[in-house]
Target: ABC transporter ATP-binding protein
Amino acid sequence: MPEAALSLENITCTFASNESAGKSYTAVQDASLSIAPGEFVSVVGPTGCGKSTLLNVGAGLLAPSSGQVRVFGQVLQGVNQRAGYMFQGEALMPWRSALSNVTAGLEFAGVPAAEAQERGRDWLKRVGLGGFENRYPHQMSGGMRKRTMLAQTLIRDPDIILMDEPFSALDVQTRQLMENEVLEIWMAKRKAVLFITHDLDEAIAMSDRVVVLSAGPATHPIGEFGIDIPRPRDVAEVRTNPRFVELHKAIWDVLREEVLKGYAQQKRA
Ligand SMILES: Nc1ncnc2c1ncn2[C@@H]1O[C@H](COP(=O)(O)OP(=O)(O)OP(=O)(O)O)[C@@H](O)[C@H]1O
Model:
């Protein structure tokens, strides 16, 4: 079997409880998940189940209580340098222009300013923001800010792309445009992607494989579905494909109960 780009092996994450001293909460328990080079994998699960926790472990931003992460076969220690991470919220620096936000990672890595700027302009064009280099985050729409974040994530050409509900704050049309753009970029580069979403339609439309997580506590994968719908795909059109409808039903059968459990837990909390 070829070496996985990213492999989470028997990950458990236990946090000290913020509410009651001395108590702990095991968000994730014995979760294993691996992504092949070039594979697009989505993880879906009920709200609060531990999706971001798993992604943070894969990014090397959170050390698991037990288990290990391998990146192209090497045990991960510290931050995952082969990965680019696109966060759920707004992560642009308000005092920097679009261009300067996009080039920040290159600057920090010591790339000469002229080269960084050239690559930055090129990436801004690729995400449809040519001509908006000098806009500051507050002068951009939500979609433009997300495009800037996408360029910021991809400019370092990471081998692994980690995305945490990157488009959840966008309106449906902008969201579909951006999903198609991400697919187009991914088709050209074929990097390993771990994509977190609570939106099953988005997961199926984008992915090679969809992994379903159980409701927390002690979240772990409970189902895995290969998405055998031909590419290239248009995320809006693919939804009417009979295979899409079939897969949606099969995955929802597994996910539905977990969503209900997650919802009941949130109401109790
Ligand atoms: N640093 C922390 N300390 C304590 N508890 C935490 C910490 N990080 C996460 N948790 C808890 O772990 C659980 C999983 O959180 P996580 O953010 O991974 O869920 P999620 O599935 O990404 O949520 P959402 O769908 O709302 O984005 C939650 O109950 C959360 O409160």
About this structure: The mean pLDDT is 92. The helical segments are 51-59, 98-108, 113-126, 142-154, 172-189, 200-206, 242-268.
